[in-house]
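Whether sequence alone determines local backbone shape is best considered at the level of individual chains. When preparing material for the folding task, we compiled for one chain both its residues and its backbone structure tokens. No coordinates are needed to read the tokens, only the vocabulary itself. For completeness, the protein is quoted in full, as a sequence line and a line of structure tokens:
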Amino acid sequence: MNAWIEKQKYLIDFTLSSLARRKAKNLGLLLVYTLIVFLLASVMLFTHALRQAAAEVLVGAPEVILQRMVAGRHDLIPPGYLERIGRIRGVQHKEGRLWGYYYDPVVKANYTFMVPGNQDIAAGTLLVGAGMARARGLAVGNLISFRSYSGKLFSFTIARILPHDSELVSADLVLISEADFRSFFAIAPGYFTDIALSVANPLEVRNVAAKLSQQFPDSRPILREEILRTYESIFNWREGIVLALASLAILAFAIFAWEKASGLSADEKREIGILKAIGWETGDVLKMKFWEGALVSLAAFLIGYLAAYLHVFRFSSSLFAPVLKGWAVLYPRFELSPVIDGFQVATLFFFTVFPYAAATLVPIWRAAIADPDAVMRG
């Protein structure tokens, strides 16, 4: 065993010296190879971290949201729906929610006005997201005015700016008291935007949704898992866009790598002929060239993946963020938690390292089994 290990060490040492003799060519290959791994790994790391962040945000979301539909559009929940829902078995908690959108012509952006169910807000005050505060230059204690859709002007005091840590979901959020919300949007008492439901048994969520559809045929139940699946589809779609844009670079690298792997230069053929002439066996030549391909591909993979990790989690994925996160006037500023999926790493490793390392063996084998004189003359 020790003799085998020593032999591999000598082969690796010889391979490194062989690579150093063709420094410019191999550095160019390594640079292009690393760039491709960097592009692919950055997209995979960023989208996976976004999926994890979305899943964490939705952990506290209600299992079922009931929306009333009129002519195929979302409408207000009328009085009496909450009481009727209470008679459905399996519903643990129900809450009428008030939220809506408001377009601000000053910054040309939409805000999400919402009445929080877990805290009281004083009349005439607002809690605003950090994105909105930046866009409007707001600070605690400032006054801000909005003209409602009825034409009436409302003035509010900024009581607090929501923490930066929540900016992923609160960049455009405006928290307001129930009385101010109903007055601002002219919504009568007893009406709600939708109803949030908690189900005692997670296995009964779909049964509860089916009962809601039967009892309220004019309404649409939305499950938390459906929302998460929608986010998953959006991230997959955006990831596909970036990978499609990178496909030309990937194709160019594939052609470049295949050309290198499928043919040997005159220097490489001469080197193999000399090794055969001084007594190297065919298996030794194959092992040496295999190590050459493996070292280049492994170095490219490690450098590219490390650079992608730093790009995504230390520099906020500045190259791909606008495409993968989407575009908005009130752009959220947030840092993703480092998340690495072992299956993704293994998949990327398999499709970037193995094909190149394996492709180098075919032309090497052809040269290694040939007569040394013929190889050196060729």
